[in-house]
Amino acid sequence: MRVVKYEDIVKSIKDMIIYSTTHLAPDMQKALEEAYENEKSEVSRAVLAQLLENAVIAEKEWKPLCQDTGLAIYFVKVGTDVKVEGGTLKEAIYEGTAKGYEEGYLRASTCDCFSRANLKDKAGYNLPPIIYFDLVEGDKIDIEYAAKGGGSENVSRATVLAPAAGKEGIKEFVRKVVSDAGPNPCPPLVVGVGIGGSFDMSAVMSKHSLFRNIGTPNPDPELDALEKELKEELNKLGIGAMGMGGTETVLAVHIETYENRMCHIASLPVAVNIQCHSSRHSHITI
Question: Are strands 268-275 and 157-161 parallel, antiparallel or unpaired?
């Protein structure tokens, strides 16, 4: 049984948050540079140039890429042969999150659903985070983190289609969600799509798909082809960078399905989770 110290996890979480909210992820950096080269609209090219300049300034000054530093979202795989010493893994993630947001001078965005009162004095600084745990073989702790802003989250949608809707129904739903979103999620976008499982699982998968590095192919050839087809169709919407009109609205479409593409015989759950041009995400293994 491998032992990991509680304080080591706290520090790793804190450092990951501060770095990834001030440094544009390499895959997004490359995708924005390619979008700038490919964009047909001069106005949108100018906007993309500003986004790239913003990333340079943020990295140089260790300032947030965006004022909305988001909710802290985690997907955590815990090896069955690892033990946390000095506290629980959940407590370590909570403490690391609070320290990362407070010491990094990042906005505390969590509030009460009804009163809208900020929770930083009640629950802790930008707490509680959203955590999905999974048990796996091994003696490592694998942590994926994303700062999910409200602008992109607000336009994300989930539904349950009739089985007869099939692949065409899925494509139409994705098109509608992105079209309805327009400029609100700060394009160019990464579009995550979850298909199958149940209503709730499709939403989880759509969010998790956003963690996949842009440019990496889907391991399922059929889904890979569908991703490319959807990206091409979505870019024909002409929304462009920050809604200024153009050819580079979507940088990537990432699709996840449940095991063996499972869903109930009477249902076809589909969710679309949208991520903005900052796409702040990071991945560490402890």
Answer: antiparallel
Q: Which of the listed residues 148, 179, 199 is the one where a domain comes to its end?
A: 148
Instruction: State the amino acid at position 83 in one-letter form.
Output: K
Element (H, E) at 136: strand 130-136
Q: Which of 215, 286, 213, 239 is nearest to 39 (CA)?
A: 239
- From the list 230, 284, 280, the residue with the least C-alpha distance to 22 is 280
Q: Assess whether 84 and 195 both reside in one domain.
A: no
Which of 148, 170, 195 is where one domain is finished? 148
Instruction: State what percent of residues in the chain have pLDDT above 70.
Output: 100
Look up tokens 């491998």; give the residue.
Answer: 2
Name every residue whose Cβ is closer than 8 Å to that of residue 86 and which is 6 or more positions away in sequence.
5, 6, 7
Q: Is the same domain home to 116 and 163? A: no
pLDDT one-digit tens code per residue, 40-96: 999 999 999 999 999 999 999 999 999 999 999 999 999 999 999 999 999 999 999
- What's the one-letter identity of residue 199? F
DSSP SS3 for 71: strand
Do 162 and 140 belong to one domain?
A: no
- Containing domain of residue 125, as a range? 2-20+65-148
Output the DSSP codes for 181-212.
HTTTT-SSEEEEEEESB-HHHHHHHHHHGGGS
- Same domain? For 234 and 244 the reply is yes
Other Cβ atoms closer than 10 A to 248: 26
Looking at the structure, do residues 156 and 257 belong to the same domain, yes or no? yes
